[in-house]
Amino acid sequence: MKAIILAGGTGTRLWPISRRTNPKQVEAIIGDRTLLQATYARLRRGLASSDIVVAVSAEQQEAVRRQLPELPRRNLVVEPCRRDTAAAIGFALSHVAQEDPDGIFVTVNSDAYVRDENEYHRVIAAAGQAVAMRPDHTVLVGLRPSYPETGYGYIRTGPEVMRSGDGGRYPVHAVDRFVEKPDLVTATGYLQDGSYLWNPTLIVGQVGAFLESFARHLPEHHALFGEMAGLLGHKGKEREIAARFARLPIQSIDYGILEKERRLLVLPADFGWADVGHWRAVKEILSDDDRQNVVRGEHVGIESSGNLLYSLSGKLIATAGIRDLVVIETEDAILVCPKERAQDVKRLVGELQKDSRYERFL
To answer: Are residues 235 and 352 in the same domain?
Structure first.
């Protein structure tokens, strides 16, 4: 199996640590390793370095090379510009297809947390086995929700169509439908229903078959990938490739292909997954006790609980009588917000982007 790590995101909800040139995946948000290094190490438990491809934006390629020195240079797929996940995945698969068009691949986001890595590998192997049995189908890994999350998309499972993995331990279902991020009441109903799964966009498919799905649903992408395929690996063709890549429409893989594709299956799983997408998620990953403070750096507090407190510049954070706040301090910026407003950090970054005076903080 080939693994494609998608590492080109901007991670605006984790500002001020996550910045344009050093986004969250190349920062040590959780633990001593960066999110990208942790993802790579997780995959290396089951795959050779030659079977791991990293898709990254041009601005971040040097940071990725420094952090993953073991990765073969040809396995770093550099996107000339940002065109969203359909372009990123299709471009990476175009590179993989040069060597193994009939191989099986899995796409992995660089910013996810996984608690049970053994189960993670068993699930991916089972999904790959299902694709081997039905190579014209794509298998999504759906995650059984543990609470009514409103920040994720959901997949509703249809009938079971096969079983996969050792001893057939994993049921594989048809996909009934995709559901956008629900409100709390709806998400609570999904949790009780039992047929709804979180959608982490963890895709397992056959390389050539999935590229053909672009022909069905995103024909402009497919045509441009075909043109670029003839240029890949040839010196001096970088500008021609970049010109074609820039013409790709901006489109996510979810809207562009997955929500239109009929040959789609889903494998329900549970391996302790979390999207490290905002500061509240970081707090919940690092502590399952709502009252406990999570601290990185120096902190002294009285009557303060349930806070996430990061001091990266060496300054002391002192708190008195505060609860359930996020306080992130860097050399040039300080973020303070309630945990329940963590999703709004993206809006805050949007405000910074409107004023050129704040360009240096992005």
So the answer is: no
